[in-house]
Known about the structure:
The structure is a single chain. The protein is an alpha/beta fold and about 350 residues long. The protein folds into 2 domains: about 1-40; about 40-355, 4-Layer Sandwich (Metallo-beta-lactamase, Chain A). It has helices spanning about 1-20, 25-40, 45, 90-95, 115, 120-130, 145-155, 155-165, 240-245, 255-270, 275-280, 290-300, 320, 325-330; strands at about 50-60, 70-75, 80-85, 105-110, 135-140, 180-185, 195-200, 200-205, 215-225, 225-230, 250-255, 305-310, 335, 340-345, 355. The chain has an 8-stranded mixed β-sheet. Bound molecules: zinc ion (2 copies).
Amino acid sequence: MIRRLLMAMVLLVAFAMGLVWLYRAEVATWAFERGALRSMSTDVIAELPQGLHLFVCGAGAPLPDPLRSGPCLAVIAGERLFVVDAGSGGARNLQAAGVSPGRIEALFLTHFHSDHIDGLGEMAMLRWTGGGHETPLPVHGPPGVERVVDGLNHAYGQDFFYRVAHHGRDVVPPSGAGGKAETFQMPPRGEPQVVFEVDGVRVTAFRVGHHPVEPAVGYRFDFGGRSVVVSGDTTRNEDVLAISQDVDLLAHEALAPHLVAVLERAARATGQDRLAKILFDIPDYHTTPVEAAEIAAAAGARALLLYHIVPQLPIPGLQAAFLRGVSSAYAGSVTLSRDGTLVSLPTGTDRIEVGKLP
Ligand SMILES: [Zn+2]
Ligand SMILES: [Zn+2]
């Protein structure tokens, strides 16, 4: 009796699976429609607790890593959305997480290395078409930012025209296309400068060391009694240490020289001397994971998030290799970020919550 029942159940399941397979296009379209309705009716930012949040829209650097797009950190302060650096894929990652780039209020660039601006066109375009803005994306940065923004507006000028012609001026007001440079003077060493302040959100820029890349800065965000420091690309740096005193979250770049050396050896072994030379050069203007942990410890930072991860970490065990020595340098919470990582700092608490967007 039980055997016959079991047999009937197996047949039933097989029949149901066969039906789903037969109608897979219809089933998938139905699921697609349900998903689209759900994502378009959800305001992800409104669902977050009141406070300051760091969302990693790009955890990587130029080397290809399927888990880590080009450098992009979104800072959500209450209902406002800011972005630090526009690495490739950043704006799409925001969209994938349910955050419309149309809500970006301002972009802050740390420096003008290609990996930090190669998603700028996509970000400005998706902000314009997604938000119907009448003013261009404010792009804050040290001197040189105007040249980057001029280039963006020049390169995308034809597409601005196409979008208006196709969708109409009400949907995409021509005055909102592209970016507008908001240049600030380079802060002197040891003297951070407030570069943006509105409704309780304060952004402070500070000088970092990324020689020969100059200017190069990092940013500190303060809102609702909570704070985040974003290091930008830098070697171990005194200004990062000073501005990170007692910060809630230090988001620091990290490069593991012992893993970059693996790539360099492979490049030499295969006769790719140009690549080997580049791989040999890059560790000297970045910070190792252990150095970042030492800075977090010396500053009394309450949590450390590593981003701008170099090299790529395609094999799960490599994360442990990347973090070698970090736990003995710093006792606080350490997050090796990937695209989609979220750290929340709710106002009125001292909580630090690491997760993903709802
Ligand atoms: Zn970089
Ligand atoms: Zn750089």
